[in-house]
Write a structure and sequence with these properties.
The chain is mainly alpha-helical. About 55% of the residues lie in helices and about 0% in strands. α4 runs antiparallel to α5.
């Protein structure tokens, strides 16, 4: 496919998408389960589709800072903007002075694992301050259980 064929196909695809959304109210919803209770909207809006289009075009390896520092910096700028738009306290901003900030996760599962690992790390740091004369933590078993849980959760994601 050359550039002009791509341009025609892209215009046609956008027309198809707009036609689909324009007729969505008249379409019958087919539930996938007898327990179907509601329509949960997906992240499919016109701005989202345009964002996906740009994302697909640039194909940056944006999975961590080492692979794409520019994407990470853009994420930080976006999250700071979002914090300001939501009028959140400055402790949520990604600045060196506040130690705040965050990261956009790809799914709820990724967010849960990230939170669990962060909680485990915090627990280990807090309890490592109380080492006995042999250098053992008084809460070794607790930290070990948390570590095992985190490893188990991580292994189920494969």
């Amino acid at each position: 496919m050359d550039a002009e064929e791509f341009r025609r196909a892209a215009y046609s695809a956008v027309d198809d998408i707009v036609d689909y959304f324009s007729a969505l109210d008249s379409r019958r919803i087919l539930p996938n389960s007898p327990n179907f209770m509601a329509l949960f909207p997906a992240n499919v809006t016109y701005p989202f589709i345009l964002g996906e289009l740009y994302s697909a075009a640039f194909t940056a390896p944006a999975f961590d800072w080492l692979c794409s520092p520019a994407c990470t910096e853009l994420e930080i700028i976006f999250l700071n903007w979002l914090c300001n738009a939501l009028n959140l306290p400055s402790s949520y901003l990604s600045t060196l002075s506040t130690g705040g900030g965050g990261a956009v996760q790809g799914s709820a599962s990724e967010a849960v694992v990230t939170v669990m690992i962060a909680a485990m790390e915090r627990c280990i740091r807090e309890h490592m301050g109380s080492l006995d004369k042999n250098g053992r933590s008084h809460s070794e078993s607790e930290a070990e259980k948390e570590w095992q849980l985190t490893v188990q959760i991580g292994s189920t994601r494969k």
